[in-house]
Amino acid sequence: MDLYEHQARQLFQDHGIPVPRAEVTRSPKEAREIARRLGGRAVVKAQVKTGGRGKAGGVRLVADPAAAELTARQMLGTAINGHRVRTLMLAEPVDIAEEFYVSYVLDRASGGFLAIACAQGGVDIEEVAAHHPQAVARIPVDRAEGVTSTKAGEIASAAGLPPRTADVLVRLWQVLVAEDALLVEVNPLVRTAQGHVLALDGKVTLDDNARFRQARWGDEDTEQRDPLETEAAARGLHYVKLDGEVGIIGNGAGLVMSTLDVVAGCGARPADFLDIGGGASAEVMADALSVVLADPAVRSVLVNVFGGITACDTVADGILAAVDRVRPTKPLVVRLDGNNAARGRAILDARAHPLVEQAATMDGAARRAAELAHTA
Length: 376
Ligand code: GDP
Ligand code: MN
Prior knowledge:
Blueprint: H1 5-14, E1 22-25, H2 28-38, E2 42-46, E3 59-62, H3 65-75, E4 79-80, E5 83-84, E6 88-91, E7 96-107, E8 112-118, H4 125-131, E9 136-141, H5 149-159, H6 166-178, E10 181-192, E11 197-199, E12 202-206, H7 227-234, E13 238-241, E14 246-250, H8 253-265, E15 272-275, H9 282-293, E16 300-307, H10 312-326, E17 332-338, H11 341-351, E18 356-358, H12 362-375
Parallel strand pairs: 14-16, 16-17, 17-18
Antiparallel strand pairs: 1-6, 2-3, 2-6, 4-5, 7-8, 7-10, 8-9, 10-11, 10-12, 13-15
The structure holds guanosine-5'-diphosphate (GDP) and manganese (II) ion (MN).
Subunit structure: Heterotetramer of two alpha and two beta subunits.
InterPro entries: ATP-grasp, ATP-grasp_succ-CoA_synth-type, ATP_grasp_subdomain_1, Succ-CoA_synthase_bsu_CS, SUCC_ACL_C, Succ_CoA_ligase-like_bsu, Succinyl-CoA_synth-like
Family: Belongs to the succinate/malate CoA ligase beta subunit family.
């Protein structure tokens, strides 16, 4: 789970990282009061879990409390990169001399943590990383040793950050460990004109597996969750919305992931990950189909089931019952294999539903689903 900027800021503050004074609100009138408390001028910041917020108009410097109220009124309720703005943070403006980038992130490729740091931080960090990769230091961090002040000094010097940022680097690592985070990022970490080091913007991604001991963040941030994912979760389905056009339904996380790869290999993009698990009953299948088909981007659906505990004939019955219930308007490609596959296929053949076709292999099914998505 990603935290909001104001939550990340709170964590930084809890761990002794200097941050600007700030308050959170959902009301323009209160925004005016907050700006007054901050000294008149303020930075009004939309609280949305998406990058590029500043460039999208979600970070605005205002000169006085009246302007804070007006800006808050304009910003609240709008969408930034598709994320509705419900909450604002108003922060005390800072006189920036230099902007740096620092983060710790779990690097799944190496199975360890990486410190990533760059002396040219700020809103253009992606361009810097793309065009001047040598300007970005990437230093492995041993999970057991962590970031000592010696290590922090190494990271700072490798990235060309001033030595006085080392204390923040040590504390930022403490945030990662204490809060069960997979990512802690500060961009920008600034040196102010007065010579102070401040964390101006933060991103923290918590490890969902540790949610049980991070109760302060609540159970789930349904607010920003995709509505289809919320709907699927309510029906007990493991569904993740993706950006493509081929709907995917399968049983077993491993099989579903392979299916995504094979569909991508056929030049199409998966629209979702949906694992219906072992008990592929008619009801579960119908729920799965209705969630996948509710995504307007879906142009074809690939059902890839390997019959195990649930035999393929039961799955075939489930698919037909689901089709009768959901009444799809998009074509379905079904690949059944494993326990009772022949009987399952015969059941689908006998029904000869105009929108349901079968494929003998996973590759063939993916190719056909991709083709249908591009012609349907
Ligand atoms: P992001 O676009 O979501 O990363 O939003 P940030 O909070 O990082 O702000 C984007 C940019 O706005 C920063 O890189 C700064 O250049 C600028 N900015 C943010 N807060 C302040 C501030 O207090 N003073 C000044 N001068 N600029 C700020
Ligand atoms: Mn930022």
